[in-house]
Amino acid sequence: MAVKKHEVLHETCSKQALHALAQYIDMMNEQPNYMPPIQELVKNCQDIVKCLASTSGQEDQLWDLLTTVEEFLVRIISTVDSALRHEIVTAILDKFYSLISDPESRACPAMSVALIVLDGMDEEASLSAARWLVQRGENGPNGAGLRASLACLYRWIHEWNSTPALGDWLLAYIKALEENEHFDILIEVSVENLCSLVMMLNDPTSVRQPVADTIFHILASLRESSGAFEKVAQHVTCLLVVLATDSGQWSRQLLQNVVDISTAMIRYMMSILNGVALDKFKDKYSFVIGCLERHMSSSSRFLQLPPWKARNVTLPNPNCHVPLRKVGLLNLGNTCYMNSVMQALLATKVFSSHVVLRMTAVPYWAKLGALFAKMMHSISTKLNPEEFFKVVRSPFFTKDNQHDSSEFLGYLFVLLQSYEHRSDRHFDYSRPAVLASRPRQTPNVYYQAGASVSDNERCESSYSFRSTSPRPGTSGVKRTLPEQDVCPPPKKRMRIHESMFLRRDSFIDTVFGGVLLTRVECTVCHSSSLSRDIFRDLQLAFPEKPAGWKHSVQDLLEFYFSKETLTGDNRYACVDCGALRDAERSVTIENPPRYLVLVLKNFKFEPKLQVQTKLMLTMFYNDTVTLPTRSRTDRSAYTVYAAIIHEGTTLDSGHYYTLAKDNNQWFSYNDEVVTPAEPDHLHTLKRSSTPYVLFYRRTDVEEGTVPSLGQLPPKFQEKVIAHNKHYIESVRKMKMSRP
């Protein structure tokens, strides 16, 4: 039976209209099999939001109506297909934002019940919705809509406790404003509403976890604002007393965060004052300081948030600092191995900055520079890297198949070095790339009996593109190795002989290149031979240890550089003795690289299964490592700044993503999804997630900076601006296509 149509809302939402709304929803809920036409359904959902915005009354008075509205919206969202669901949700959010962003509106917090349509979405989906609303609000004059909407949400969170999703939604909206660098709006509106937010903590039983997290996020972000401190100082002493007298776990948790953030505020204020000004500050706030000193402060997780910095502008400035937003890369079909490498190289700021500033007219480098420039300054949160991947991918890295990220990194270095001193003018990218030398693979080579060191080095360089290296992608499809690919277990040292010396004219070698000095000494006549190998990474094998042994990156390096006895089938052909002799082999660093790349060979080949299985060993990933130099007394120290993680139980399938640090903040780059990561994320990975390629920077090397948009060459500026313009136009068309 069809439902009689009701006009849900007129120009003003009177009690009569509110009654009509309730009657309409009741009738719809009573007939769950009936679904009105799409245009009517979308309009009625928007009218429900508009009517709720004009209601009045306490939470208990509106409880029955709101419960009915929730049931209706949940039923609609859960029964329609995904395309229709998207249309309804965006229509509701569009109406929702138009009402909360009106400075003249006093929208009732009961309207927040409409956020039920976001229930069940993950944090990233909620953040994407918030980003869309922020971009919508940026079209207004001087951010008036953004200010009004933030103030409205602050008022709601103080007045209303019946919408569980409200705290999460407010935090997502704040994060979206942060990404778009609307710090002036955040500081201004937050300071205005800070007293009411802080006072909410006086009643711990009524504060939900998401609301508390949002309040502490705001307080921590305002820790360098003098205006915010003055507001907090008015209430913090009473708040400390209230929370300290309650022995409940929740109150103790709130108390600790209040102490930590308030102490950080005071320390910052005292750090920027001196002399008479500092003495006056201490006198004025002596009581607050004394109250806080009675409690022990700690390093709250909220203090890891970057403080909001006022810019005093609301429009994008091409010469401003790089935005907080990080940009992900779309997976084009098992291209996670390429995406992970790109993010790690972008985090190598000395390298990525040189590419965008100096290599605009060099084949392949120019394509890489265009991608890096967009990753640095895109206003979207994800990019399609196809333009770069389609010209850089060699025939050996086949589309939609699994490949090894370290193998691709080696290939990319060789490709870039091959064209480092050529012009991009009239360059034909449709022709196959001609490499100066073959890309480095991961051969498993023994020193052969009766061969000299140089003979074995020639053996090491004569490898094939058909590597037995693991090739994880994203599909989980397994790859069977042919019999001829079977190699003996990896030695502790695997080296590639590419050239005798570092190329001083090569930027690749300047950044990543180092030189290994290998000495082989005959145990009979004690004569020795020296050889040098250039390297851009060190591939570290695991020594045999008892079960349960905890390895570390530093231990693997010590194993790599430990002395090795060449005996049996591996005896050394001594020239002076004229016979095969036992020998001692040692390796040191003659020229330490500025940036050290380590590949952990945490796999072994299972001949019976014909697969590469992960070792799954207990491992500590050192934040700092050292390398032995030729003098043996000096060691070069390095700190980690990026890691390519392999996720999966075998290295013949799985997925790659990257952890990288920027200005002491870690981020996880998982294809198009980028999220902040805890500082100890590298040490708390699941057993099946193992760092495969580690990137370290030498401690005497500056981290480097990201060039602003205005500093980029005109060619790359134009590409970034065109990309951002296209993104804005696509968003605008999407909005215009809605009813």
TrEMBL record:
Source species, domain of life: Eukaryota
Domain USP: 327-699
Region (Disordered): 462-489
Polar residues bias spans: 462-472
Pfam families for the chain: UCH, Usp38-like_N
InterPro entries: ARM-type_fold (IPR016024), Papain-like_cys_pep_sf (IPR038765), Peptidase_C19 (IPR050164), Peptidase_C19_UCH (IPR001394), USP (IPR028889), Usp38-like_N (IPR049407), USP_CS (IPR018200)
UniProt family annotation: Belongs to the peptidase C19 family.
Protein name according to UniProt: USP domain-containing protein
